[in-house]
Amino acid sequence: xxxxxxxxxxxxxxxxxxxxxxxxxxxxxxxxxxxxxxxxxxxxxxxxxxxxxxxxxxxxxxxxxxxxxxxxxxxxxxxxxxxxxxxxxxxxxxxxxxxxxxxxxxxxxxxxxxxxxxxxxxxxxxxxxxxxxxxxxxxxxxxxxxxxxxxxxxxxxxxxxxxxxxxxxxxxxxxxxxxxxxxxxxxxxxxxxxxxxxxxxxxxxxxxxxxxxxxxxxxxxxxxxxxxxxxxxxxxxxxxxxxxxxxxxxxxxxxxxxxxxxxxxxxxxxxxxxxxxxxxxxxxxxxx
Length: 288
Known about the structure:
This protein is α+β, with helices and mostly antiparallel strands and about 290 residues long. The protein is built from five helices and 16 strands. The strands form six sheets. A four-stranded antiparallel beta sheet has the order 1-2-3-4. Strand 5 (about 115-120) and strand 6 form a beta hairpin. Helix 3 crosses helix 5. The longest helix has 16 residues, at about 1-15. The protein starts with a helix and ends with a helix.
């Protein structure tokens, strides 16, 4: 219909101009369901009720706008980018009470493979993202998403008491026994993708804490489903040397479908395990 034609044309014009066709003011959360999803974990952090890593980010990274998606009404779905992810409403007529009414995209899959998903079975091929997975954006030696492109089908095949594999920027992997001193192993094997999840990441995905639900603070699991925010693992966990605030640090990283998680020994409680800024990274890759 005419509205859908106008919406598609507005989107084309916005991309040509380098700016999304906003339906919300920059910095404002653009849909009640997006706000409800954000509030659950990040409102207590913003309000100073608890000190822990952001699950989405303090404010949206962009306004809310429409991106093409074949199966959505009119071929367009509502999205909004946050530091840590992208929120999406693909099927607005679905059950709005379901945790899956708002999804966060398989951004890491796209960044590593270069296959941009435009529908359930519709893809466009681009180059994998030469964007740092973690740490400082100007780090010249840390791994990028492209560093993992040949490791998606590589797996240790067994549970590890201590992870020793180290990934380098060129995608090569070495085994360095010194990393065994951290005593970080793997916890659970995921049949769907044939990868083991590192213990701190599995603990994070199943952690509980202060959340905001139904207008009040309560203690509950941070994720109703442990895979909601991350998706399944698509790589094994690897150590890397990453520059953080200008200082090289040993960081354990593992990429999942939706986010790459990092574990940094020595970080304070609540911040040892964090999600990378994949929402920022993907937006830069797609629109810059």
